[in-house]
Design a protein that fits this description.
Layout: H1 2-19, E1 32-35, H2 48-60, E2 68-71, E3 74-81, E4 84-91, E5 96-104, H3 105-115
Parallel strand pairs: 1-5
Antiparallel strand pairs: 2-3, 3-4, 4-5
Length: about 120
């Protein structure tokens, strides 16, 4: 009986470890999210299903570090959720990420051109 109980505990622990995928490593600090005042210009006009998908991606940015650099010499990074783009700035010293833009690819290209 003790062997079965120990096996059950090990399986339960393995399952718990499996589902804790997005937890930061020990000693690793999570990012704080900040939002530029007009970040949601396009986001606020999207349907609720799309907003929910994008919001989940934004919340993952608290832990996620895989983003691509917008372009050499420009301090923005881009995360993608389907056809939508999230532009952000990362401050590694303060462990903050600031969301600057959320929109579809066409809106993103117009926003990107306005930076130049």
């Amino acid at each position: 009986m003790l062997q079965i109980k120990n096996l059950f505990v090990r399986i339960k622990l393995n399952l718990l470890n499996h589902f804790v995928v997005f937890q930061p490593q020990r000693g690793e600090k999570m990012y704080t999210l900040n939002y530029n005042p007009d970040w949601d210009t396009h986001y606020s006009k999207m349907d609720s299903f799309t907003q929910e998908k994008i919001w989940k991606k934004i919340q993952k940015q608290k832990e996620e570090t895989k983003t691509r650099h917008l372009r050499h010499g420009i301090e923005f990074y881009v995360a993608e959720q389907g056809q939508y783009r999230i532009a952000l700035k990362i401050n590694e010293d303060e462990k903050t990420k600031t969301i600057w833009f959320v929109g579809n690819h066409k809106q993103y290209e117009a926003w990107y051109k306005s930076l130049q």
